[in-house]
UniProtKB/TrEMBL annotation:
Cofactor dependency: Zn(2+)
Source species of the chain: Chamaesiphon polymorphus CCALA 037
KW Zinc (keyword) present: yes
One Gene Ontology term of the molecular function aspect: metalloendopeptidase activity
Bound cofactor: record note: Binds 1 zinc ion per subunit.
Coiled-coil stretches noted in the UniProt entry, renumbered to this chain: none
UniProt protein name: Peptidase
Secretion signal, residue range per the UniProt entry: none
GO CC annotations, alphabetized: membrane
Matching Gene3D superfamilies: Metalloproteases ('zincins'), catalytic domain
């Protein structure tokens, strides 16, 4: 009996092998040699499209890949400023801050959105977006650096990934295996563009952003001063959400600045900053 079972198993294995080879051969004949690479690419896309991601232990490379997809989707909904000088300026500030972010091992991409609304946001994988309206609203480079540092703080704290995971659980689409890649990207876009950050995440990003200003050498008052300016204006921008209240965030930031750092002046030259903006815009 065992011999018959073993014989049957061998026959099934040979049958599967022959069937697989036959299928592959037919594919080669139909597609032709020049199309093999293209067929392989489509097969990879199909596999990737159904990929399940375990968000609780995602690697940096997986996050970078998801971030790149999310960025492509975001860029279909916003308009980037096509001015290398402006983008380069924001990137130089951002890369200085990244070195003191506590998470400089991933690649960061800083992009300027052509929009006069005062806003800034970030998504997983190191992607930061700064509106032209934010640049124009800032009084000096230290204030702009504070906003950029805050957004880097969201990435360093992996807030986007945590929010996607929480959202997937709340929507009932997270399984033991994980979440489908396409759903992660969809949620990442929605969270970046339309939904406010949590109270805890905003405080954490403020703390991280302030730490970056201190370590990089910028005047640490840049971030709270910019937020205070917007709080007293007629309309608060999207990134000053009511969770938590912006005035409470300003107070917390001011108490976190060590007395020995309060007299720093790097980035506070308003006339130099305004001249830079005139050259750009």
């Amino acid at each position: 009996m065992l011999a018959r079972v073993a014989s049957l198993r061998q026959w099934l294995q040979r049958w599967w092998l022959y069937a697989s080879l036959s299928f592959l051969t037919i594919g080669i004949v139909i597609l032709g040699q020049p199309q093999l690479v293209r067929a392989a690419e489509w097969w990879q896309i199909l596999i990737q499209g159904a990929q399940i991601i375990q968000l609780s232990n995602i690697s940096d490379s997986q996050e970078a890949s998801l971030g790149a997809e999310t960025n492509r989707a975001i860029l279909r909904q916003v308009r980037l400023l096509e001015n290398p000088a402006v983008t380069g300026y924001v990137d130089r500030i951002g890369q200085r801050l990244v070195r003191n972010s506590g998470r400089s091992n991933i690649r960061y991409t800083f992009q300027v959105v052509e929009d006069n609304a005062i806003n800034a946001f970030a998504t997983m994988g190191g992607y930061v977006y700064i509106n032209t309206g934010t640049m124009k609203a800032a009084d000096n480079e230290a204030q702009l650096a504070g906003v950029i540092g805050h957004e880097i703080g969201h990435i360093a704290g992996k807030h986007s990934l945590q929010r996607v995971r929480q959202s997937a659980i709340a929507q009932g689409i997270s399984t033991v295996a994980g979440v489908e890649r396409d759903r992660i990207v969809q949620m990442g876009v929605q969270l970046a563009l339309t939904l406010p950050n949590s109270r805890q995440d905003e405080f954490d990003a403020d703390r991280r952003g302030l730490s970056m200003l201190l370590q990089t050498g910028y005047a640490p008052n840049g971030l709270p001063d910019f937020m205070k300016k917007l709080v007293t204006s007629n309309s608060a921008p999207a990134f000053l959400s009511s969770h938590p209240a912006a005035s409470e965030r300003v107070t917390k930031l001011q108490t976190m600045i060590p007395a020995t750092y309060r007299n720093r002046t790097e980035g506070l030259n308003a006339s130099a900053y305004k001249q830079t903006l005139r050259n750009f815009f």
